[in-house]
Design goal:
about 90 residues, alpha+beta, Macrophage Migration Inhibitory Factor, two-stranded parallel sheet, about 20% helix, globular
């Protein structure tokens, strides 16, 4: 069962959170061919006052909305019985 952890800024309604969780789970289920009912998601909401963002010149600069982007991979196995396997380097 994959564990999905979402770190987002606070301020979304329960319906918006549900839609976000459903959309991310559907994408995971399609991409990794996991069963639709195999689901484990955790949402961490952070106060806007505890966040610092900078404009990068991109038209999709952070405006308090969810944005999909490449982020560092954090390897945190949930058990000591398995070894984390780091991802391969991207080749473009």
């Amino acid at each position: 069962m994959p564990l999905l952890r979402l770190d987002i800024l606070e301020g979304r309604s329960p319906d918006q959170l549900k839609a976000l969780l459903n959309a991310t789970h559907s994408a995971l289920a399609a991409a990794f061919r996991i069963p639709e009912r195999d689901r484990c998601q955790i949402v961490h909401e952070h106060p806007v006052s505890r966040s610092a963002t900078m404009r990068t010149g991109s038209s999709t600069a952070c405006a308090g909305r969810a944005r999909l982007d490449y982020r560092p991979v954090h390897l945190q196995p949930l058990s000591n019985e398995v070894q984390a396997i780091p991802p391969k380097e991207r080749v473009y």
